[in-house]
Amino acid sequence: MQNLTEDPGNVTYNKSLSVIIKVCVVIPLFCFFLGCIAIMLHIFACHRQFLDTSRYILFAHMLINDTLQVLSSVLLFLFVMAQVKVALIYCVPLLFLSTTTFQNTPLILATMSLERYVAIFYPLQRPAAWRSDRIWAIILSLWLISSIFPIINYSIGKYDPSVSVLYTRVLCKVSTVNSSPVQVLFKAAVSILFFAVVAVIILFTYMRILLETRKLRQDRLSVNKAMHTVLLHGFQLLLSVLAFTSPITETLIVLHANWLPEDISFFNYFCFILIPRFLSPLIYGFRDQTLRSHIGKAFLCCSNRGRPCVRRKQCDRVFAF
């Protein structure tokens, strides 16, 4: 008769192998994402014409926001994979940054859609707040709005008096800090409100541009580009909404596959948190013709590192004004 109990050594080995595979999948993709974002931000910093356009300023802001979101989520992922426990004073700021940047993403998408709407309907008399030298006030407002709700969420929770913020070490997960039902309900309500408002704004801007196309005296090409841009923001919003489908996927996986809970969590994290954050800025960046040409030149410049003379000439052309 075979022994039905599994060898503890095999269980430990399988868990270790699973952790290594997960880390080896996430880290290279994360490094590639950071490399692409670094090139785009370097192009923005070296070319003044991008910083004089509100649309590109908002896009650079989205790159920074998504980088912070991915960086914080990957750090939390590595802490959980390694079973590293940290004090609450270090865990809470990391969770706060992850939540704030996650909620900031739909606000940025709505703002970028409204910027396209303003650029089409008010090309000569653009409101002062939407000018490139004033757009920073809107960006700061987005950060303020997205950070208020996590602060409220952490404030309404009930914490154990015996837990020390400085010395109690916990596994840094959202469920550790947002454990009460009130916090879970509040977070869900805020997320639904955020995405619903942004969806209405994107739909409104798209429909207005679509209906007023024939009435505008502008070039039809610029109007079509604005319509495609708003559609792209809607697609980016759809990618962000995928994060809320994790309960459905967990139920489907449990019904049709015998997966471990940690494997289900990783599947949801990789497919619905990381991949949308990786794709969203890259799709928008490579779609823009002006930015795409600079990105191609930057990659060409970096690929000629072994030929200093050629590389120097090409880099001079890439970063020339």
UniProtKB/TrEMBL annotation:
Listed under GO cellular component are:
membrane
**Keywords tagged on the record:** Membrane, Transmembrane, Transmembrane helix
Which residues span the membrane?
20-44, 56-81, 135-156, 184-206, 226-246, 266-286
Q: Which domain of life is it from?
A: Eukaryota
Which Pfam families is this protein grouped with? 7tm_1 (PF00001)
Keyword field contains Transmembrane: yes
Any one GO molecular function term: G protein-coupled receptor activity
- The segment(s) forming the G-protein coupled receptors family 1 profile domain are 35-284
Primary location: membrane
Q: Report the subcellular localization.
A: Membrane
**Protein name per its UniProtKB record:** Odorant receptor, family 95, subfamily A, member 1
Q: Which gene encodes it?
A: or95a1
